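Please fill in the sequence for the structure shown.

STRUCTURE ENCODING:
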């Protein structure tokens, strides 16, 4: 065998086999799922047997820096060294290096790697199926695909949030963290990735606030509190707890709050590590001061909507994993035209997959037909949820700041007179049906549940003529075509 082998001369399965072995180590908690995710899309460049070096190209600068540059703390550096040692050990075994030598793995950055390989329909990185947890997993079931390996990281876009999450999963950093930011930007994905990573080594509780409040309402209606009491008792025993959509509990009625706060206090007093997730910062929630004061002290991590680079990287990762052949210019047009909501991007990608499975080409005309269903980036994408509420209030005669402030508080409350119900209906319909916003986010905006949003949208769709005049007025205020 020659001493130096280029990528096309190295056995094709050498690097893939290395990644496969690393994915097996993730299952036994011997290798970080976050680190494996950084290797997604990587490719072997050169193997030098004489110098015992293996050169590997990575997709992102962030991945290269994370694996090769000295950590910002002694704990993170120790973590990085262990990660690199595992990679070297397995790659050495796969190469069959003799003489007791250890292979040196050298990473470099090739940002065009995914684009260049798309036409070859490369096999996706072998991802480990989440293993049966050795410890208990309490609360709401996790989504299997929401693991670190599936999380796309772009330097300067979401890399800071990824670092905090991966540090938390590795036992580093603060024990109390609060993720906040708009819907559909990765908060829940990282929170669930942490749960997947830790459930093999500690009792983990993942609590979805929407499911928790639904369980509370069911207990009230059936007078059977056994399921809710059991959930509270088991969650309180966890070593790590993640509370998703916390604002749904804190900004709702007193009942769920009174159930939840003792659970949180028990977790806090027992020394459990806690992550809370919300659209809002802690200080922006409208719960009473005593409740909020118990929850302060979390380090806050703000998530921003994905920028163009991140949207393109996410689309590229999906296309590559599914072996689709799509020109990079087509994906760029799609990334530029879509709003910064990953859930909407997933919906669009599903449409692309369905068309591809039917033998239809994914071309520029197809992309334009999809983008026509979504708001233009220069108009509707720039409209905030609060601007929609303001437009609805203005269209219904509330013009002064004081009037709108008072009525906004009424919309958040539990009163149901017909005029208030009408305002909520209009807000939800414009957000969900006109602006294509996520129903969960629309519900959270007015501190209600998703079923109320779906009911409102169907109500307008069943009788459009009853709302046509008001909707045209609201669209005019927002600068949308009627």
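FILLED IN BY: designer on duty
SEQUENCE:
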């Amino acid at each position: 065998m020659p001493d130096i082998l280029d990528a096309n001369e190295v056995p094709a399965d050498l690097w893939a086999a290395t990644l496969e072995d690393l994915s097996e180590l993730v299952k036994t908690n011997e290798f970080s799922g976050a680190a494996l995710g950084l290797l997604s899309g990587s490719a072997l460049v050169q193997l030098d047997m004489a110098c015992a070096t293996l050169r590997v190209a990575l997709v992102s600068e962030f991945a290269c820096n994370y694996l090769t540059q000295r950590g910002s703390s002694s704990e993170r550096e120790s973590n990085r060294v262990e990660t690199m040692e595992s990679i070297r050990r397995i790659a050495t075994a796969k190469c069959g290096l003799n003489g007791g030598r250890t292979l040196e793995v050298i990473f470099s950055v090739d940002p065009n790697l995914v684009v260049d390989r798309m036409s070859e329909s490369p096999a996706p990185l072998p991802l480990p199926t989440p293993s049966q947890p050795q410890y208990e997993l309490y609360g709401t079931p996790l989504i299997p695909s929401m693991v670190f390996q599936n999380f796309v990281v772009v330097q300067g876009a979401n890399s800071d949030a990824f670092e905090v999450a991966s540090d938390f999963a590795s036992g580093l950093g603060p024990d109390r963290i609060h993720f906040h930011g708009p819907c559909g930007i990765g908060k829940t994905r990282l929170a669930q990735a942490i749960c997947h990573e830790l459930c093999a080594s500690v009792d983990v509780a993942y609590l979805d606030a929407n499911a928790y409040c639904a369980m509370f309402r069911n207990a009230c209606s059936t007078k059977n509190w056994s399921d809710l009491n059991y959930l509270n008792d088991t969650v309180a025993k966890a070593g790590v707890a993640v509370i998703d959509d916390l604002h749904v509990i804190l900004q709702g009625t007193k009942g769920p709050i009174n159930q939840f706060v003792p659970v949180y206090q028990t977790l806090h007093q027992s020394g459990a590590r806690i992550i809370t997730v919300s659209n809002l910062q802690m200080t922006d929630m409208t719960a009473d001061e005593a409740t909020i004061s118990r929850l302060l002290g979390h380090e806050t991590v703000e998530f921003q909507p994905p920028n163009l680079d991140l949207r393109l990287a996410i689309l590229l990762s999906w296309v590559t994993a599914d072996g689709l052949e799509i020109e990079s210019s087509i994906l760029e047009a799609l990334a530029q035209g879509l709003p910064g909501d990953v859930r909407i991007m997933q919906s669009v990608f599903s449409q692309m997959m369905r068309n591809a499975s039917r033998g239809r080409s994914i071309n520029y005309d197809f992309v334009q037909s999809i983008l026509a269903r979504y708001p233009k980036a220069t108009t509707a994408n720039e409209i905030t949820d609060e601007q929609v509420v303001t437009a609805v209030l203005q269209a219904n005669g509330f013009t002064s700041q004081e009037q709108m402030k008072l009525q906004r508080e009424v919309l958040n409350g539990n009163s149901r007179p017909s005029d208030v119900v009408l305002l909520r209906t209009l807000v939800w319909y414009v957000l969900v049906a006109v602006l294509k916003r996520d129903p969960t986010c629309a519900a959270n905006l007015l501190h209600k549940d998703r079923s109320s949003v779906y009911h409102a949208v169907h109500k307008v769709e069943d009788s459009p003529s009853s709302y046509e005049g008001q909707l045209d007025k609201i669209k005019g205020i927002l600068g949308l075509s009627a």
